[in-house]
Design goal:
The complex is a heterodimer of chains A (145) and B (557). Chain A is an alpha+beta fold. In chain A, 44% of the residues lie in helices and 16% in strands. In chain A, the strands form 2 sheets. In chain A, strands 4-1-5-6 form a 4-stranded mixed sheet, sandwiched between helices. In chain A, a hairpin with a 2-residue loop joins strand 5 and strand 6. Chain A is globular. By secondary structure, chain B is an all-alpha fold. In chain B, strands 1-2 form a two-stranded antiparallel ribbon. In chain B, helix 8 packs across helix 16 and helix 16 crosses helix 18. The longest helix of chain B is centred in the N-terminal third of the chain and has 42 residues. Chain B starts with a helix and ends in a 24-residue tail after the last helix. The chains are: A alpha+beta (145), B mainly alpha (557).
């Protein structure tokens, strides 16, 4: 099955949410004291090196998905601190794809740690970055159903 | 006059401005959805990732909002509420929003490069060194002024002192749970938020009372420690918890003002000359973030431009994000203006800017029927929120200033290390010691305008970069050129006045720092203008793709 085939047969695109933090400070210090953009890397070093590594790892996952599925899936990359959008997106996916009650509860109560990957509203990977074959298998399995 | 009428009027004017002037500026900048953004052309899933407009707007607004747009309007309200109100609206629409939107567009047309990088690429190492001196000096002023503001807040609202101290410990525990124990996000966040609000209750039960000097000493020791500890211990988890506080404060303030329906008590215009100087230029440098802020260009062109899905999204994110900040600043002004004139002037003269805000906004929040909280609880919550923002500003600025200090002593080739560039303890100690010296050499009303001038000078430099870029593209640039001249006029007048005033009053240190900022800003402006203007004009390309060119700064068909 190719990405083109999915487009033809699937009325609704599979939704993949990649949850990872960006290597920056987000809220409340105002614009004049902030670690992001020019200041995300100061004196030649990343301010948030651990986050940067995770972000790069999840970036690789995003590229794999892009190569394999292109526009045939809806790929969303979101920071967990963007709570308003994250809540909305998870609930929308749960409403659209109607997974099992247990899986829905786990996602809705956000019983996962980041980094995490959700496919059609269901938590597939949590606390680690999936390998290429793992993520492909998870997405293809959803499409096959 | 009713504050609700003014808030509604502002909302209506801001919506009209967004749909008319915002669209006009977007057209003049040549916004075109057929042209792919760097998030697509340079997609890597890491830095360059297309994000939906609401996602990016939420992120951009959280990045620019903080203590600045809250404190600035209250500080300037000593002139009366009318000039501040009009400067917020006019400055926000015709200068601030244009500055933010054009910074995003300039950045995406330069392959997502930041304004800082664009300037640095053109003016080289000497320009960069000057920029580091400029940044370091500005941050020393931020540290000095916010330490004073927080210490004054803790003395006036002792419950906030306890709550803020508890909040710091809570953030450390939260960080350990999330980042080291890998506990689930939802339940941990819920417990974190419940405990966060419990800090307010505990603060009211066990208020912490200490003299000003003791608080200054504690805060200085705190920033020293916080700026050298790994970020995951405090900065990262507090950032997460702060986002809840920001949403709660903004929502509470905006909704609460409609339930409270307060009356404006402050005089419309007190005098054209007050204890902080003449209305021009002081008003325009003291109200920075709520009307225009140079640091926004760094945020807009730093992260936002790399995630823009399509060019037309820049209008809602850049222009719209700034207008929401204007609304936050207007709510802050209303909080001050609804106090009695005597109460406001008494608190203002003692430098109690955060307590002025928390008293006003606390009143708004306490009037929301669904919350059923007392005025005192709402005051403590508001003061905790702003103190948390100010504390965050304080320790991030100390860390940033330390980075600027270390980077200044690095050499260009191979980034060779010296003891001054590699030892973080030296950089931090020098930064904290200098800030403390500024703090004791002048009151907040002397330091804040110098900080504001530095901030606005950065805005003028960003507008200069954008104006020259537009001129090179043979595009009309009057809408960036006029604000640029205005901002240069404002900041240079303000700095020269501050040099004189502080010299006369015997605040020689503040006079020296104002002189340094003045000279560095002039040098930077001249260097930037000269090097940027060297390039031969190139007409705007009609194509949709960009490719790297020498210097990596141009677009082509």
């Amino acid at each position: 099955m190719t990405a083109k085939t999915i487009e033809v047969f699937q009325m609704q695109k599979p939704s993949v949410i990649l949850i990872r933090e960006t290597e920056e400070q987000v809220a409340s210090s105002g614009c004049c004291g902030k670690f992001e953009g020019d200041f995300a890397r100061c004196a030649g070093e990343w301010v948030f090196p651990e986050r940067r590594r995770i972000k790069e790892g999840m970036g690789e996952v995003a590229r794999w998905l892009q190569e394999e599925f292109g526009d045939a899936i809806e790929l969303t990359v979101v920071d967990p601190r963007n709570q308003l959008y994250l809540f909305y997106k998870i609930f929308r996916d749960l409403w659209s794809y109607r997974p099992s009650f247990g899986a829905a509860l786990r996602s809705a109560a956000m019983i996962f740690a980041f980094p995490a990957v959700l496919v059609n509203g269901v938590v597939k990977f949590s606390r680690h970055i999936p390998r290429r074959e793992q993520i492909m298998q998870a997405v293809w399995a959803t499409i096959s159903i | 006059m009713s504050a609700v009428v003014l808030v509604l009027l502002s909302m209506a004017l801001l919506v009209i401005a967004y749909s008319s002037y915002g669209s006009f500026i977007a057209r003049r900048l040549g916004v075109d959805d057929a042209r792919k953004t760097p998030a697509h052309t340079m997609y890597d899933g890491v830095d360059y990732v297309p994000a939906k407009a609401p996602v990016l707007l939420g992120h951009h607004f959280a990045s620019i909002a903080g203590a600045g747009p809250i404190v600035g309007p209250i500080f300037a309200a000593i002139f009366g509420w009318v000039p501040v109100y009009f400067w917020l609206l006019l400055g926000g629409v015709f200068i601030g929003s244009v500055h933010d939107l054009s910074s995003i567009i300039a950045s995406i047309r330069h392959r997502g490069k930041s304004i800082g990088e664009i300037i640095e690429d053109h003016i080289g190492l000497s320009g960069k060194k000057l920029f580091l001196i400029f940044s370091w000096s500005a941050m020393l002023l931020v540290i000095a002024v916010f330490t004073r503001i927080i210490a004054n807040t803790f003395i006036t609202v002792p419950a906030t002192a306890t709550a803020s101290v508890l909040f710091i410990f809570l953030a450390v525990i939260f960080g350990f749970a999330i980042y080291r124990r890998n506990l689930p996000l939802g339940p941990t966040s819920l417990i974190g938020v419940i405990l966060l609000f419990s800090c307010v209750g505990l603060g009211m039960r066990f208020p912490l009372t200490l003299p000003f000097a003791a608080w200054v000493a504690i805060l200085m020791i705190y920033v020293w420690i916080a700026s050298v500890t790994p970020v995951w211990i405090l900065l990262q988890p507090r950032d997460y918890l702060n986002s809840f506080l920001l949403y709660a404060l903004v929502a509470g303030g905006v909704i609460g003002v409609f339930f409270a329906n307060p009356t404006i008590n402050l005089a419309p215009l007190t005098s054209l000359k007050t204890s902080i100087g003449w209305i021009f230029p002081v008003l325009f440098v003291t109200v920075a973030c709520g009307a225009i802020s140079g640091f926004h260009s760094l945020v807009a062109s730093g992260t936002t431009s790399k995630q823009l899905n399509k060019e037309s999204d820049a209008k809602i994110v850049g222009f719209g994000g700034m207008l929401i900040e204007v609304l936050l600043a207007i709510i802050s002004l209303m909080a001050a203006a609804t106090l009695s004139t005597e109460r406001f002037q008494d608190m203002w003269s003692k430098g109690l800017y955060v307590p002025i805000f928390s008293e006003g906004v606390g009143y708004f929040i306490s009037k929301i029927p669904a919350l059923s909280i007392s005025h005192e609880t709402a005051i403590t919550f508001s003061a905790l929120a702003v103190s948390a923002f100010a504390l965050t500003t304080l320790d991030t600025c100390t860390r940033l200033a330390r980075f600027a200090f270390q980077e200044f002593f690095e050499t260009a080739k191979g980034r060779e290390k010296s003891v001054l560039s590699s030892n973080r303890l030296i950089g931090t100690t020098v930064t904290v010691a200098m800030s403390l010296t500024f703090l004791v050499s002048g009151k907040s009303d002397a330091i804040w305008p110098i900080f504001g001038s530095a901030n606005q000078m950065l805005a003028a430099l960003a507008l200069l970069a954008v104006s020259v870029w537009l001129a090179k593209r043979q595009r009309g640039n009057l809408y960036t050129l006029l604000p640029m001249f205005f901002m240069f006029a404002v900041t240079l007048t303000a700095l020269s006045t501050l040099i004189y005033q502080n010299g006369v009053k015997g605040n020689y240190l503040l006079s020296v720092i104002a002189s340094l900022l003045f000279v560095v800003a002039i040098l930077l402006a001249v260097m930037a203008a000269r090097s940027l203007m060297k390039t031969v004009p190139v007409p705007e390309p009609a194509g949709h793709e960009m490719r790297p060119v020498a210097g990596g700064l141009d677009e082509t068909t």
